[in-house]
Amino acid sequence: MRPSNDSTIRVLLADPQSMFLSGLGRLLDRAGLAVVALARDEETAVAFAAEHEPDVIVVDVRPPAMSGGETVRGLLEASPESRVLVLTDSAGAEDVLETVAAGACGYLLKECSLQELVACIQAAAAARSLILPSTASRLLEHARASLSPDETEDLSERELQVLRLLAEGHDNAEIAAELYISPATAKSHVSNILTKLHTQNRVQAAVYAVRAGLV
């Protein structure tokens, strides 16, 4: 792996499949990111997270090598300033809810393109959470739960509109265009939604919207 400079996003990759892991590492390096380490199991990933303190950790939470929310929590405990993106071929409801609740800022399916993955890594490094429109509907469909939270009663009608668009994968600019408001206003609505729903990021809010039956 090549050395990084101050402006390069430093990435730790963790995946049980060695060929996928090494191949993705090379692709991300070529895309201008700095892959600082590769890990095939949870213990190694946590150790590398503590050692390298990467900007972003991209991890596949697949048992028995990885274990969902427990892995995400372990990575964030080892490197609290890192952002965790889950990249997997599983979109089961329990997987999504567990990892998002544990602090993951994004959940992507491996069917996403390299460009989409790089965009999500860049968003994560900038302390933003990104839901890809190409995977949002399929991902959130699997995250549906039977119980509907009641905190949505605290949201205004406009905030509910913003939440629905957020859950569909729209960014602030797209939400603004759809609702004929400024991007700054859209950003303010998203911030208010996260506060009222007691969620940490857009992904958690999107899953919440599904559980509340809003999308």
Describe the 3D structure.
This protein is of the alpha/beta class and 215 residues long. The protein folds into 2 domains: 10-142, Rossmann fold (3-Layer(aba) Sandwich); 151-211, Arc Repressor Mutant, subunit A (Orthogonal Bundle). It is 51% helix and 12% strand. It has 10 helices and 5 strands; from the N terminus they run βαβαβαβαβαααααα. A 5-stranded parallel beta sheet has the order 2-1-3-4-5, with helices on both faces. Helix 7 (157-167) packs across helix 9 (183-197), helix 7 packs across helix 10 (202-211) and helix 8 crosses helix 9 (183-197). It is globular. The model is unreliable at 144-148 (pLDDT under 50).
H/E series: EHEHEHEHEHHHHHH
Radius of gyration (CA) equals: 17 Å
Give the overall silhouette: globular
Query: Can you tell me the residue ranges where pLDDT is under 50 for at least 5 consecutive residues?
Result: 144-148
Corresponding CATH superfamily of the largest domain = Response regulator
What separation lies between the terminal Cα atoms?
42 Å
Q: Average pLDDT across residues?
A: 82
For the biggest β-sheet, the strand order reads: 2-1-3-4-5
**Class inferred from helices and paired strands:** alpha/beta
Q: What is the second-level CATH architecture of the largest domain?
A: 3-Layer(aba) Sandwich
How many domains? Answer: 2
Proportion of residues in helical segments: 40-55%
Count of DSSP-assigned helices: 10
Give the DSSP E fraction (strand runs of 2 or more residues).
Answer: 5-15%
Describe the main β-sheet briefly: 5 strands, parallel
Number of strands: 5
CATH topology of the largest domain: Rossmann fold
